[in-house]
Structure formats: structure tokens, C-alpha cells
Fold these 3 entries.
Entry 1:
Amino acid sequence: MKKNLISKAMVIMVSATLVASAFTGCGKKDKDSATKVFDYDIKDYVTELGAYTGRTVEEQVTEVTDEDVQNELNELRESKATYNDITDRAVIEGDILTIDYTKSQAGADDVNQTDYEVTVGEGMLGNEIEAKLVGMELNKTSTVEVDEATTADDGSTSTVKSTYTITVKSIKEKVLPEVTSEFLNENTEYDSLDNYLAGTKLQLEEDNLESAKQQTKAQLLQDITKDSTVVGAPAFLYNINYNSLAQTYSNYANYFGTDLEGYLEMAGSSLEGLQEQAVSTTEQALVVEAILKDAGKDITDEQYNEKLKSYVDEYDYKSTDELLEKFSKEELLMSMRSEVCLDYLYENNTINQTTVSASSN
């Protein structure tokens, strides 16, 4: 699966929202020059630009522990797990079961489920019920009773007795692979456990450094925007920001089986909050442009083409043509320009870097 190209520039703006696509389709679509994108005067909107050099920010890099490295190894083993069909013993904790069940409760219709999959001990069916699954036998039906909370129409709660009639249709046992040199050779770039542990720790440290760096860039831009005076915005720029954010959250909503408003409510926000976020994103997008103009930073046609080729490799596209079918030139260019601006800020301000434990974050 391809990584999201635009998100690289987007995640470090406005608490991980869409600056790069804030510029999507901006201005005139001049296909001959990478630098001719905007058709408005940035000084009409950013009337006072906060100092964008000479600042000092604190950068906290989370240390990598042996537990972090072990968790990576555990995840690798989990991803390569196999499952054995069990026919010669009863259910034990950790088994993956396929069951049919009927739930009966006084004053309520029976609930019937077929081919329900449950991992014993994970609590998806309820801890009390799953504890009673232990010891059940394949292709046999058992009845268990549990006390369950119920909520009345008036909001009051009470405890009622529920009866579950359960048939175990299959039992599977998860088998995790042993960590051998052969296993590591087949699934990683390492040939021994020691090399894997050392290499994984180094990679996690690099990841934490990069994450801290992106957070620092975001903080710098937020601080500069706060110290700038932004008056209004081109209507199309706000609309693009709003639509980009709405589309992103709609995609999340689809994943969770809800709509945009439902997802925003789950996330503790609302359509009004989305509008405020679009305003904030637009302000930061304008400040990015003001910084680039004031610092004399931009991307030449040659640099654009070189970066385009690097995107193809970095984000696993077959060709620049495929990349340009996915994203417009304006989107790509603005992603590049955002990176230029943020890199410039990081290089031209004082970064005080410290290492902190995960528990202190």
C-alpha cells in the first residue's frame, strides 16, 4: 500500500492537518513554471509577519527502551502467527472460537448470533461469559447464566440475569513462530537476534528523532502565526482547506462506519469546530507563503522535477505520470514549498534538544 505523499507535509501543520492541500489549486495553473502559482498579493492578508528567525524552542526526544524493542519483536511474531485447528481438547484461554449463541433475557426478545468469532480472554463477549467458555467442548452446546447491566428508557440501570446457549463450532490455537536466525532472515533484514535488537533500537531512535523534529517545526509555525497579523483570506483558499479537512475526516468516518458529523462527535468536535480548524489551517498556510516570500525561498523548475522523482521513489509510485494522475502539480508543488519553509524554520532557529522518558510525555 502506498504511503500518503501529501500527508508528510500535512501532519506537521495545525496539529496534524492539511497545509499542503490548503494550497491545492491555488491561483493560476501555469504548467510551464513551478514558481507561478498564486494570483494574489500575500501582503493583503498577512499584514504583519512575526519574527521567523532568532527563536528558541525546546525539542523533546523520547528515549527508546528495551521494552519498546521487545514490543516490535512481539508485533513481528504476531504478524506471522499461524492457527491450528483443535479437535482433541476443550477450550482454554487464548483460543479463537467460532460459536453460535442465543441470548435470552426476561422481558426482551432473544438475540441470536451465528458464526461469531471470539478470542477467549479478550473480553469482546464479556469477561464473565468468556471465563465460562473455558472448558467447553467442540460441537457441544452449553448453557451459562450471567448477571448483566441493562438501561431502561428513563436512563435508570439495573442488573438482570441473562442466559446464553452456546455451541462451539470450531477451536483454533494461535501459534507464534520461534525467533530463529532463519525466521529473522526471512522476515527482516537481520540474520541474528542480537543484530535485530540493535538495528531495531537504532531505527526506533531515528523515528523518535524525526517525530520530535516534526513537532518542533509545527510549534515554530504555530508560534510565528500567533505573532503575525492575518487579516481575512482568499475565499477559495479557505474553501479548499475546509473541503480537504472534511474529506479527510469523512474517510475516517467511513472506516468507523459513521458519517462526518458522527465521527466529529466521536472525536469531541463538531462542524463548527471543523470550520474553526479550517480557519486556523488557512492562517498558517498564508503565513507559510509570507515566510517564503520574505525569505526569498522558492522551488525552481529544476528542483521541482528533482523532487518529483524523489517522491516517486519515496512513496512507491511506478512513475511521475502515475504520481501526477493522483495529485495535481499545485498539490505537489505546495507540498514541496511547505517542506522548504519548515526546513528553513528548523535550520534558522535555536533548537534545545533533550531526551525524555515515554512516561514524562
Entry 2:
Amino acid sequence: MNPNRRHLLQMAGAAAAATVWPTRAQGKPMFDTINMFVPAAPGGGWDGTARAIERAAKAAGLVGQMQFENVGGAGGMVGLPRFVNQRKGQGNSLMVGGSVMVGAALANKSPVTMKDVTPIARLTEEAGVVVVPANGKIKTWKELMEALKANPKAVSVAGGSAGGTDHLILGLMVKAMGRNPREAAYVAFAGGGPANAAIIGGQVVAGISGYSEFEEQIKAGRMIALATSGSRRTPGVNLPTMSELGLDVVMANWRGVFGAPGINAAQREGLINFMTAVVKSSAWQKELETRKWTDVFMTEQPFVRELASDLAKTEAVMKDLGLV
């Protein structure tokens, strides 16, 4: 063979190998389209996470467009079967999920769980914050604790779906005060929007959720933030932890993304590479800072192991609440 022709063929082969989908070649996005599935109503934490991924990915030139579908209800248990059944084998589909879904699957005795999707990456962790409406009768942590200790059933608390992190935090609070966690008067909502409305409208005594879901209302003076559930104070948020205030409760809400069932190894790797690039982008780092999210990025087997551990811990708390 002509040496020059052999050299050209070798160069062509190398170029082809360097552009295997879905790597980012010559400034092109890694994916033309990502179909993002959010198993919750708009306005909540999962929806906020999905929109933050979109902003960061587009700013970094990693994706052409992102298409969204929101299906709320039962802590993700309404949407999860839809994602599993309709997106099987789709290598450009992602679903946002998190610790709430672990508890919701147990509470609803769902035949479809996180075990039926493909773990891609754990992204963030957010401590819960306890709030009360600014126009409510209770305005301090001490007043809330006294009311809960006297009669937990009389202190209605709004949060996400039953069995989710917000619910578990309330159960731990009641237990730490020496009362039966099953006395907790938890009011579950499908998304952050309805929960916010219930708290501000005085339909409940208090609320628990991630700080980012209540931040706007707190800053506007419509809610009073009392304490967080983290092991340490949330950066940029001048709020004590429950532990600092003498209540031995520590729990945080993690969020991540999952691929569809039935995707092959190359498709899974493509999604992991995409999310790794998103997390490394300056736009994503800005999202973390703005939303007071803690970066707990993790992929592959470490993420799978964490999922198993979270399931065991969640089940133990839910047994105390009488939910399983």
C-alpha cells in the first residue's frame, strides 16, 4: 500500500475513534437533546434541580436542548412507573430523584422502585429547614418545641410526600422529644408550590423542606426560619442546627439523576460523562452557591452502595413512624 495512503487511513481511523457518540467533539454538544423527566409537580426541589442542570448544561455548551415532563404525586411513585415503562432503553433520558423517593416507595408499597432505573449520579445534599408562617401564633423554636412536646397531634407540619425526608425529619424530632413518632401530624404535598401556599395561608402550624424551596418566602418575610437539620450550618444561611439547639436530629435530603432501564453500558457511560461535565462547569458551581446546595457528587458503584445504605436507614425511621 502507498505509504501516504496508509497514513491517511490511520489518521481517519483515529479521528473516528475520537468522535464516538456521545463525546463532545469540535465544540459540539455531547447530546443534541436530553429528555428530562421530573416525577414531581413544578416548583419543588426535583424540578429546581432539573432546571439547574439545564441552565448549567446549556451555559457550558453540553446540550442542544432539554425537554421536560413533570408527573407529580406520591413522592415520585406516580411518575416513576411512567418513566420505567415509557423510556426503556433510551440513552438520552434522565430522571431526577432522591431520598424522598426511597421512603415513598416503602410507604406506598410500590412494585416499581429505584431498583428499576439506572443510577447515574448523586448530585447535591440539602439540609431541611423548619419554618413557621410569619402571621402564625408560633414564632420561635422554643414555642414550637413546647407545642410539639405537649401534643404533637395538634401541631400540623407541611412538607413533601409521605415517607419523604421532610416527613422523616418530623418523626425524628418528635422521637427526640420523648414522644411517639406516630403522633406526628404531617401534611403531605406533591410539590413545593402547594406546601408554600399552605404554610403562608396558615393552613398548617409549620413546615419542613429544603432551604431553597422556602428561601424566597423567608426573605420576603412571609415565613420565619427556625432551624436546620444538617450536621453543620448551611453556608450562607445564618441559622442554627437542631443539634445546636439541643435536639439530637440530623438528616439531609440528597438528589441525583437516573437513567432509563435497559440502557447499555455505552449509553450509561455517556450519561455519566455528561453529568460529570455539568458538575465541573462554572455554571453548576454557581447554582450550588446560589441555592445553598452541598456538593456530594458521586457516580457508579459508590453511588449504588450509598443507595443501599440509604434504603436501610430510611426503612428504620419509617418503621418508627408506622409507615412500613
Entry 3:
Amino acid sequence: MKDLFSIAGKVAVVTGGSRGIGEMIAAGFLASGARVYISSRKADVCEATAARLSAQYGGECIAIPADLSGLEGIQSLRKQVSDREDRVDILVNNAGASWGAPIDEFPENGWDKVMDTNVKSIFFLTQKMLPLLRNSASVENPARVINIGSIDGIKTPSFDSFSYGASKAAVHHLTRQLASHLIKENIIVNAIAPGPYPTWMLSAGVGFGGETEGVDWGSVGKNNPSSRVGTMEDIAGLAIFLSSRAGAFTVGETITSDGGSVACS
């Protein structure tokens, strides 16, 4: 029982890991003894985050910048990971995008960008990572895939982000479909649907201009049933559960991490 939640020594890949929820999960994994690869589009930001997390948590965090909205970037990430590792124990598909506009003005490129980044990339990155995941997978210790959805894929979004909510609902259903196929290969797929967290995306939506430090998150949290926004411990704790022996019999689920937002809606 003492190792029930252990992920020590595991190799994890976290997309969109340079900030927000991806960074929080990467930090939790590092603190728990995993070796973590993070990816994001901006090389300088990705490398700075990897260096900071490595120093802060004493682990090994490696930056691999990549644009995962297309197959070229997906193939590049897979190759760079496979050049360094012969297995991946945990894949966290967190990279995401949003777009807001009134319904009469919502553009096609806003729709396509969100769907490509939020849905297509999850399927094809998981597909390309399968050889590395299979190298890790066993009955006793399955490999894990965690897709980051959203409560906006469960309930009506607060913002005019029409493609975002639809994309996250697709992520939840894709999670179940992938899980039904890959559990036979000892690869467990689940999803997390976060609610309000102190991220760049939510900051931009509530008028903080993308700032996550030095802004009044309490004013956002007071509108949530739990009277707060989420923390690193909340999202990383759930991801660690899903990645450890404790979560090895949980398959194809979408678990909310929202302080009661969906339950009380």
C-alpha cells in the first residue's frame, strides 16, 4: 500500500507543458520522481519552464518544442522522444487552444485551429506514441494516456467559444473509444475535465489579459461552489492517481476537477 500512488521512475510526456494545467501536472510528476518531457509551440518558453521545474523539484524535465496542430509537429515530437527513450509510461495530451467570437462572426479558421489542436492532435499523437506506450505496457503495470478535456465539454460554456466546447466534448468521447481499443493492449486511457484553474486561457477569458500572477483569482473562485479556483495539487493529484497503481482499474472515464461546478449546474 505504501507505493499505491507511486510513479517514481516513470517516463512521462506532457503536451502543452510550458504553462497552465500542463505545467502543474508536469510539476506534480517531477515532485513524485518521474522523468518528464514537456512540449509547447514556443521554444524559449518551453525551455525556460523545463529549466525552472528541474531546479525547483530536483528532477529531470526536458523541453521538446513542437506545434502539435499538424502531423509534422506530431512526428517531430515522437521522433525526439524515441531518440531518447525506449518507452513512454504516461502520455498527457494537454495541448489546447480556444477561440472566442459572437456566433454571427465566428470564423472558419477559429473553428479549424481549435479542432486541429484539441482533437486531431490527441488522436494522432497517441497513435504515433503507441510503439513507446506498448513497450511500457504490461498487465501488472499498464501504460497510461490522460486526455485533458474540460467542463465546457459537459455543460454549456460561459463564453462564446463555440468550437472549444464542441472540441472538448469530442475529447471525452474519443477517450472512451480509445480506451475500449487500447485496454486490450494494457494501455489505459482516461480524461480529466478541469473547471476553473489559474491559467492563461481563463485569465484571458475573464479580463485579466492572460496574466496568472498578481491578479484577483479570488473574485473568480467566489463564483464556484467550492469558493476557489483549482491548484497544482488538485490537478496533479488526480493525474498521479490515474498514472499509478491506485488508478489501474479506472478505464475510459472523464473525471471532473472543478470544485463542484458541473455537479451544481
